[in-house]
Design a protein that fits this description.
Number of domains: 3
CATH architecture of the largest domain: 3-Layer(aba) Sandwich
CATH topology of the largest domain: Rossmann fold
Mean pLDDT: 94
Number of helices: 12
CATH class of the largest domain: Alpha Beta
Helix content: 40-55%
Largest sheet: 6 strands, parallel
Distance between the termini: 60 Å
Structural class: alpha/beta
Number of strands: 14
Length: 357
């Protein structure tokens, strides 16, 4: 027996047997449960939709609507940012009384398509899709749309979908500003190369993170020729990023003043690994995206080439996605693009010798 659950059921059964609404005082007297406990149970039932409270304070049982069921295709259980979003969404759905079916897209387009078929078979009320491959996005979105299911796309746009995520160009631009400011403070503005660790398969919107970074670097350090702004398809992966940066640094063994804008912290950490392996820490500066725990730990190191990251506030995704999903199901008018807040996090260098501009 769970005492508080038993008390909650006593209250619910009392209201089920009554033909008229009851006040808090009446429920308290007829159940012999403490008034504070009765009050909290009643408020919980109202919040979850089991009871309604009238303006005069009376409580009555209401017809319980069907419990909403959402499907979430997570980007990858092996990607820290994706897992943080998943945890946030699970907590928010539980608090809202929503059934959440989570399927792992495994950073793979065909797997995402299979998961979309599973959501359709399960007849979910709404799909939240977080998958990386722009080429399968229209196929996946068409499956969901054909089933008459609303779709929210996280970070990467999909046809027929409401977009939710960061302003990709803006977070990239702020990363580029950070890199340029570091170069001015540390290297007297002398920069030889700017590298962008991109994710080609994610499409133009996510690629605008690197576009924004390069635009900011050009505006702050106008002397850098366009030929020295180099984009690389690192796929947002650590090993791939490490190998690309290793190869580049080995081709340019004597070059100093190298800025790296990474589309994700996972890529940024791969670049850190390459720089550290070749002992080029003094001559390379890196900024990532997402502020995953390992990146924050790296940024805190005084000698780290990872000088900053842009936080996409993963903990805010869950509550906002649930609110957005429920608003869509309620027929409310929703903006096509819904952006989350973001903030730049830097190491101690930013406070040395003045404020980060």
């Amino acid at each position: 027996m769970i005492p508080v659950l038993s008390k909650a059921l006593d209250i619910l059964e009392l209201l089920q047997n009554e033909k008229s609404p009851l006040a808090l005082e009446s429920i308290y007297q007829r159940t012999s449960i403490s008034k504070t406990t009765v009050y909290r149970i009643l408020k919980t039932f109202v919040h979850r939709g089991y009871l309604a409270q009238s303006q005069d304070g009376l409580y009555r049982l209401v017809a319980r609507p069907k419990k909403a069921r959402f499907g979430f295709g997570s980007e990858s259980a092996e990607m820290p940012f994706s897992e943080a979003v998943t945890d946030s969404l699970k907590a928010a759905s539980s608090a809202a009384g929503i059934d959440l079916i989570v399927l792992d897209n495994r950073y793979d387009g065909p797997t995402a398509l299979q998961n979309a078929d599973e959501f359709v078979r399960n007849r979910v009320d709404l799909v939240i899709e977080f998958q990386i491959d722009q080429h399968v996005a229209p196929v996946l979105a068409d499956k969901i749309d054909a089933a008459g299911i609303p779709l929210i796309a996280v970070d990467i746009p999909h046809p027929h979908a409401t977009f939710f995520g960061v302003n990709n160009y803006r977070v990239g631009f702020e990363a580029g500003e950070c890199l340029a400011q570091y170069a001015k403070k540390t290297w007297d503005g002398k920069v030889r190369w700017a590298l962008g660790l991109d994710i080609d398969e994610a499409g133009p919107l996510v690629q605008s993170r690197v576009t924004g970074a390069f635009e900011a670097i050009r505006s702050r350090l106008p002397g850098i020729p366009s030929d020295f702004l180099v984009r690389m398809d690192a796929r947002g992966l650590r090993d791939k990023s490490c190998q690309l940066v290793l190869d580049f640094l080995r081709r340019h063994p004597k070059d100093r003043g190298i800025l790296i804008a990474a589309a994700t912290d996972t890529s940024a950490l791969g670049a850190v690994q390459a720089v550290r392996e070749l002992r080029r820490e003094k001559y390379v500066a890196i900024v990532g995206q997402d502020c995953i725990p390992e990146a924050l730990e790296e940024i805190s190191r005084i000698d780290s080439p990872l000088i900053g990251s842009v936080s996409h506030e993963a903990q805010s995704y869950g509550p906002r996605l649930i609110h957005l999903g429920l608003s869509i199901l309620s027929g409310h008018r929703i903006a096509p693009y819904n952006y989350v807040e973001h903030k730049l996090v830097t190491g101690s260098w930013a406070s040395q010798g003045g404020k980060l501009a």
